Amino acid sequence: METVTLGLFSLILITCLIFGLPTLYALFAGLILFSGYAVTYSHHLASA
Hints:
- Helix content is 73%, strand content 0%.
- The protein is mainly alpha-helical.
- It has one domain.
- α1 packs antiparallel against α2.
- The two termini are 21 Å apart.
């Protein structure tokens, strides 16, 4: 699952770079992806 999460983030980042979109979009999507991954695998945000 880690590979899928990192792959999705990389794909979003590359897509933003290709289409000239702000990198902030990819970073925000990464925040959502990685937060969802952490909550899914019991790494709750409150324990950080």
